[in-house]
Amino acid sequence: MPGKRMTFVEALVEGIREEMRRDPNVFVLGQDIGPFGGSLRSTLGLWEEFGPARIFDTPISESAAAGVCLGAALEGLRPILDISFGEFLASAMPQLVLHAPVVHWLTLGKARVPLTIRTKVGEGPYGGHPQCFEAWFTHVPGLKVVMPSTPADAKGLMKAAIRDDDPVLFFEHMYLYHGVRDVVPDGEHLVPIGRAEVKRPGKDVTVAATAWMVHRALQAAHQFAAEGIEVEVLDLRTLAPLDTATLLASVRKTGRLVVAHEAWKIGGLGAEVAATVAEQAFGSLRAPIVRVGAPHTPVPAHPTIRRAFLPDAQGIADAVHAVMKYAA
Asked: Which CATH code, of 3.40.50.920, 2.40.30.10, 3.40.50.1370, 3.40.47.10, is assigned to 197-324?
């Protein structure tokens, strides 16, 4: 399929732009998303094409904005709610957790909430708002959660999220925004929600990772190739519903599992991944499962301390060495 090279954020905007052209019911609502172009240029060019009738700048009230979008979705529109940074999701918890995900259930299937919520998380060259709160929301029935790692997946999952009839929470890692560039297919490029992807095949150990940690895992895998160790890198892409079939197939092949995410290790998504494998593929494991994540402290403000705090390729490499110590 023909395409063009884009950054991660350019691919996100391209996906939104295509869906707004395709469906007049799609609109975007959030803070500074109009003429300013969104924080980190996350909506650049949309206001110029679609104008204030479909690109709505809001006051600083995530709760009110979420309520407007919830009501619009119930009336048949397809809103995209732009919550600038993940730490502000807490300000809209009633709408995002208690209402949007359960309306379909409470109305016995009569009502749907086709709402896409996008937000930025993680470390990046910008320094601010680095917390990763994605694990909070994978616990909520009825809420789909995605977290892509490549520009092509960013576009494909964004288009799929907008078309989905259920609420989708779309986490966008800030280090990826302008730090990753790749070929993105033109036109009708959709990535199914709920499907992981093997980014690098291998036979010795599976590294299941999310967002920026996928690239760290690929970096570590490249280094291990010189040692004759074949690391399979699995990009989870969708955190809820988790693609357990692809995860289990990979672990049954390799017999070893490392889970890597930037969020805190305690209570992180890696715990759910590890528990799933322990419950359903314990007999295939040749070594204990190892998780790689941030230590259980607040994210440090000082750059030097933060670099020591964040998981990296070396941390993933250390985990791979740990599981490879066990005999086949």
From this structure: 3.40.50.920
CA 55 to chain centre: 23
Query: What are the structure tokens assigned to 172, written together?
Result: 């966008």
Structural fold of domain 3-185:
Rossmann fold (3.40.50)
pLDDT in tens, 283-303: 999 999 999 999 999 999 998
| Of 20, 18, 21, residue with least CA distance to 6 | 18
How distant, in Å, are the alpha carbons of 106, 120, 186, 273 from that of 6? 41, 18, 11, 31
Buried b (16+ CB within 10 A) or exposed e, 266-291: eebbbbbbbeebeeebeeebbbebbb
Active site amino acids: 129
Burial readout 294-308 (b: 16 or more C-beta within 10 A, e: otherwise) = beeeebeeeeeeeee
Hunting for tokens 């095949």 — which residue is that?
Answer: 201
Q: Are 306 and 299 in contact (CB under 8 A)?
A: yes
Who contacts 46 (Cβ-Cβ below 8 Å, separation ≥6)?
A: 13, 16, 17, 20, 28, 33, 55
pTM strictly above 0.85: yes
